[in-house]
Amino acid sequence: MNESYTIPIGPLHPAIHEPITLKLEVSGERIVGVDVFCSQVHRGIEWIGMNRNNAIQSIYLAERVCGICNICHPLCMVQAIEKAAEIEVPERAEYIRTIMAELERIHSHLLWAGVAAHEIGFDTVFHYTWALRENVMDLIEYLTGNRVTKAIMMIGGVRRDIKEEGAKKIKEGMKFYLENFKKIEEIYLHDPTIKMRTRDVGILTKEDALKLCAVGPTARASGVPKDVRQDFPYAAYGDYGVKAITPDVYNGEVHGDVFDRIIVRLLEVKQSVDIINWVLDNMPSGPLLAEKNLVKLKIRLKKAEGEGIGRVEAPRGEDIHYVRLKAGEEPFLSWKIRAPTYNNVLPWIPMLLGGQIADVPIVAASTDPCMSCLNRVTVVDTDKKKEFEITKEYMHELSVRKTRRLMRNGR
Amino acid sequence: MMMNEVWKLLFKKPKTNKFPAKYAPKNVHHFLRRVQSGKAKLVPPVPTPPDFRGKIKYDIDSCVGCGLCAQVCPSKAIEIVRDKKWIIMHCKEGATLAAPLKIKIYVSRCVFCAQCVDICPRKCLQMSDEFLLANENKLDKSLIVPGP
Amino acid sequence: MVDNLIHLIEIIIGTILVGAFGILFGLLTKGIDRKLAAHMQWRIGPPIIQPFRDVKKLFCKENIVPRNAVTWLYNSAPIICLASTIAVLLYIPLGSIPPVLGGYGDVILILYLLTIPSLAMVAGGFASGSPFATVGAQREMVLMMSYEFPLATTVIALGWKISTLHPGSVAFSLSTFARYPVWNIMGPFGIIGAAILLVVMLLVTTGEITKVPFDIAEAETEIAEGLFVEYSGKNLGLFYLADAVKTVVMASLIVALFFPYNLSTYLASHISLPTIAWQTVDFLFYLFKIEIVIFFAMTFIRVSVARFKVDQVVRVYWGYLTLAALIALLLIALDVLL
Predict the structure, then answer these.
(1) How would CATH label the architecture of B56-145?
(2) Over the range A286-311, which residues count as b (16 or more CB within 10 Å of their CB) and which as e?
(3) Predicted ipTM?
């Protein structure tokens, strides 16, 4: 059976819930070649931010880049604007942002764990985890007013305070997760069939993770202690002192496989619970917004000139927003989003090579891909039918050229 | 091990939220009509928390028509319109009869961010806790605030 | 001549009745299975009559044949699959009602017939001309080859034991299994052996009706329902019915091999009822036994484990289950020798 044939996974496939195409070269059950095709949809989010919306409207647009990361995208964008317009954020707002970001991490990781269980055909665990996730969703609804789109970020602070009642609810919620963490751990890390399906599957070595710039839990599971909250702290993380979680914290060894990614994510849920508890206990009092009057804020943003970069550790990895403002213009002059999935798609190739077809869903899911974040990449024109490889040097040259172009526009 | 857990779950009450009925009705309109006539029972939805962001409420009388809400609305759901009632406006040139500026909100476009509520200088916008807004018609009377 | 004709008509009517029973009860079983599985997953699940609605809907839908499919094979595969599954049911006693074709075949024939639905599915998969279906068909073949051996070992071990005790009887006929229930004729070693064989048989059933963890051939998240990826409308409905009947067939086979007990044999001396009433009671008891078997062979297993990979399935069947079946065979042999 040396004859190989191609199986297309995606753009519509039950394993990958969002549009991306994987062309698998398969010999029997074994995968001998992988090719990834991104950018099946283009939503023009950056274009809207640069042409139609003013900065305040763009917060809600950034929130809708991805349904799950709807704290980290606006947080990241807001940070970039604050740097560009030189706005000081009050301390209490920073702490509330931290709580929201960590609540989001809990819900995102539990959601991911459920999806991963579904991908390996373990629907009971899927339903079970999602039932546990309801508690954090209710908590988010209580704190922000809606379950999914939280709409709590504002340039220069946050829009809602956490009152005493809210703090009590958060404490209760965190207690619930600490109690149930044992159960989740028992299911995911000790169930023999889950271990059978995930141990030594989709291995990403540390070298590959560094070479392909993997971010977030994907990189950490390969033993790269890389975490924006630790390396470049923002919000209240600097006060807490986050430590990146690698799988050797749990059992002293790093395999870089899917099972390690489960370990990292589950431990991060626990870490998030700790962070939220700490932040609640050490919350300073003070104002929520740097500029309470939204009309004044709008005028100030219109006058502002400059550029800023926001970096946030999203549940999936490092998220970067670049914003450039020009005086006298309400829309951004330039807005660039680099979502974590963009980095985490390339590592699929070394992960999948040599694996089986049965591994594809769980390996793809193990990086927690989010195509709605990813798909803002320019498609390379293939009309010339010329095959060429983009080398690192060429890529660098392209990047330099693009930066120059951005800078020229800025002037 | 899930094997032990499933036994426990088998005898546990399901976590499913039974809204609007235990099994999805064949025809929702028919079901709602039966609920109204008291023949069927509607399982109520989960209660909303305080400060929930639901369908927008608009107090047309205290609105001054400044249009700030339309400027910050991310989905352009707010349209500035002339009021139907003509009033006597006192300007420099004297009193004239004019229709003042008011707004019209298309709830089918609304993203429920409540930014307009925050920016309104007269506090005439508010979020209610109404969230059952599904409708076949985007321009239904119930989805345009204020109503006709 | 007339006798033959009457017999033939009897068989035809019996076949229709058994087919209707298999389909209706199979769908009901599916509904109960879905309900129980849902409760084990902390949710309510669909109403029990949901599978009937599903089939009704599928039969209303359009039948789409892909352009590069082998049309005649593609369309005939579901019919062969359903027909051969119902044919197996004709050889299995339903409670105390003797099988319609009882005199014409034995367990060995059933073993052979059981492969036909799978083969029909494989043929349909290859005929649909889709890479996913091809992968699914390959996997189904692997699965079929894997569970065949433990299944055969189980049947042979039991039949051999009966034939050594009662040399005069037709060893592999299901009526012989019914006359001498397995547990009554075994010694202590034999009982352990038979218990192991029961477990093996339950796991083989899970594979035979392709449910998690052995549903590699139609793994939804991996190869998008594999074999059935191109099927739609009536063809898919027929496969659905075949799956429902197959569940009943496999459960009935386990009941016939391991639990051929009838209430009438034990209670008839205490309570006097007309024969037809006893047959009804036995039939209901048989349905109850089937539900219990299905709960353990299908519902419970499928909610409590993850799907295996192909190599893991092969390892489970060829490795662990074959080993278990051989050990059971040795135990039973020990029982015979002692």
Answers:
(1) 2-Layer Sandwich (3.30)
(2) eebbbbeebeebbebbbebeebbbbb
(3) 0.82
